[in-house]
Amino acid sequence: MVFYVKDRDFGPFFLKFSSYFPYTANLCLNGHEYLKCQLQQAGIPCQALDNGIAQCADPQRLQALAEGLTGPKIDRLLRKWLARLPHPFTAKDRAAGYRYQLSILQAEFSLTQVLRQPVAGRVFFEEVIRENLDLGRPDQVQLIFGRQVNRRTPGRFRTRVLTTGVIPSLHVDYKHSRIKQYHKEGQALRTETTINDTRDFAVGKSLKNLPRLRQIGFSANRRLLDVQKITQDCSLGEAAFRQVTHPVVVDEQRAAGLRYADPRVQAVLSALLGFMLQARGFTNRQLRERVAGLLGQPPDSLSPGRMSYDLRRLRLHGLIARIKKSNRYQLTQRGIQVALFFTRSYARILRPGLAQITAQHWKDCSPLRSSFDHLLRHIDQFVHDAKLAA
Fold this sequence. Notes:
This protein is an alpha+beta fold and 390 residues long. It contains 13 helices and 14 strands.
């Protein structure tokens, strides 16, 4: 017998009874549905996500409600509906002491990170898949699950990338358990650990062990993200890049952005790095002389007022700071990061790379140029074939 029920506090769930001895039963519920019911009762506005929460007016209260889903509450849910629904144990059986005792058959612990820029999130996740295909190796699995893996450890250790439909998903297996990661509904990164056998982690199956399993599941999610962060996190992310290249307003003072490929911006940032180790900082004149030299101009071609404009722009973007009671400036930690990234990537990657793929004399002597030409030939062939088919 299967009963599909909608509870006031837990939302939809189902209770399935076996029709033969010893008349076992399965209770299946969804913690996100529980959260939605609790938020509705508390009058807290939220935007629901399929099997998740996209937005909530009170995130701290949301977290507290999630942590409040305990074993005793789940047990009370079962007892409540056993008293209302017909099931194999008759009143005489119950009087004789026959009762259902809850144990954990499967537990799923998920972390849903809603993205402000979904397109960038999809690009990030596809890059994560490409860079982390070895996560299923024993040496990586033991880092994620926090368990020692040796040649006697049973189970298959593997990484699987499933591309059912158009949404790829990453699967990492450990014994009977696994971690699944995918881009959910085009707007969130979902990481979920499914424990199918609690003994994989030397934990009993009784419901009283739920807090321990929660710790294991959520820790595995975090460890996986930490492993991915090592390969994907950069010192200057897209948000930081926009903050530098777009105009900013600080204390009602507006400063123009620093355009990445602007020769003057590149010269100023390169000149700044020359003062990186100077404890006393630098002055308007010292910076002006270096910038002029990098631009191939005489020092008097840059006026103090023009350099003051650049200094003000650098200061409002947080790249330099003025030393108190002086006319000297020093680089901030953020300024060092930005200056190094802008100048090194432009000089060592962008300029030589563009030269190789565009200049005629690189046609037959550059692997990068050969790859681009090969790609363009295939694109042209594809377009040509499409026209013939039409």
